[in-house]
Specification:
single chain, mainly alpha, 337 residues
Length: 337
């Protein structure tokens, strides 16, 4: 059975890398927008915060399932890489977990406490969201820099922490444009207009630094015909960004029928940037140190685990799709009655 698609020592690690990458991408998009909504709490009025919570209430915990799946795939499929990555990134991972726990607790307690104490849990929700987003951005920067710890890599990781947080806030604002109306929707449009340029700056910073980190990546980007194959990615991203800024300038005056366009465009930008990173770092799972094949579990183990993954992953996807279908439309006033 293992030889059905060729050498299992080749196709199984690639398959698991693809499944892990897909899980990470789905997590970044889905939990990215609800983390972004939490970050945007800083600029929202008390009444608006209830509507913002209502817009993510049915989805936020399911969105985090994709992170659990991605880390689980890394552990079982690439245990050596799992050890290297989480050991190097121990502090930001710990901070991320603290932020996620704080978000979850604040989400529930803010609805139960006396109104006079609600502002403290709103602050906790904002703090948990901000801590999680910054931690993930720092980990992204450290990964791009090859998990090396130097003043330069730390500085770049701090930059990506800010840019990814802005990116999450941006996609969160785009989500609110789709899920809300009235004054909050107008405010979300203003947020998205301002944050779009931080997203562009983050993409530019990563695009400049990534090929400079590795001669191998530089060659993959600027050699022919590789350059011609890669060129559609930044060109498409630039076109989407320009179209997005045009739509944001016209919202909400053009009507609610275009309210989903910014969120769709934000997703497309995240997908394109992820595709560029995947292309750049393949076949390494730890940049310039461990390839997929060097760090993968035994093919026999991967084959057994693949059966389980191919059952679990569609179930998670189906549940997520069903919840988004059931709770489609505009967010209503928050109620726990």
């Amino acid at each position: 059975m293992l030889d059905l698609f060729g050498d299992p020592a080749v196709w199984l690690p690639v398959t698991f890398a693809g499944l892990m990458g897909l899980s990470i991408l789905i997590y970044v998009v889905l939990d990215g927008y609800d983390l972004g909504v939490g970050v945007l709490f800083a600029g929202a009025a008390p009444a608006e915060k209830d509507r913002m919570i209502a817009s993510i209430g049915p989805f936020w915990d399911a969105n985090e399932t994709w992170l659990v799946l991605a880390v689980g795939l890394l552990l079982v499929a690439f245990p050596v890489a799992h050890g290297v990555i989480l050991t190097t990134l121990y502090v930001p991972v710990a901070l991320m977990l603290v932020g996620l726990i704080l978000r979850g607790v604040a989400f529930e307690f803010r609805a139960k406490v006396h109104p006079d104490q609600k502002r403290y849990w709103n602050l906790a929700f904002f703090g948990g969201s901000l801590t999680t987003a910054l931690s993930q951005g720092y980990m992204l920067g450290a990964y791009i820099m090859g998990l090396e710890v130097t003043p330069w890599t730390i500085l770049f990781s701090l930059l990506t922490a800010v840019c990814l947080t802005a990116g999450y806030a941006f996609i969160g604002a785009c989500w609110l444009i789709y899920k809300t109306d009235g004054a909050l929707q107008e405010k979300a449009v203003r947020w998205a207009r301002r944050l779009a340029w931080f997203v562009a700056a983050g993409f530019a910073a990563i695009s400049v630094v990534t090929p400079l980190v590795s001669a191998r990546i530089f060659a993959k980007w600027f050699s022919v015909p590789e350059f011609l194959l890669l060129a559609p990615l930044p060109a498409t991203a630039a076109a989407i960004f320009l179209a997005l800024t045009y739509v944001l300038r016209r919202l909400p005056d053009v009507g609610d029928r275009y309210s989903l366009v910014p969120f769709g465009a934000a997703i497309a930008l995240f997908v394109l940037s992820f595709a560029g990173l995947a292309y750049s770092f393949y076949p390494y799972v730890v940049p310039e140190r461990l390839t997929l094949y060097e760090s993968a579990s035994a093919p026999e183990s991967l084959a057994i685990m693949l059966v389980g993954v191919l059952i679990v992953m569609p179930v998670i996807g189906a549940y997520s799709a069903f919840s988004y279908h059931v709770f489609r439309g505009k967010a209503t006033d928050l109620s726990y009655d």
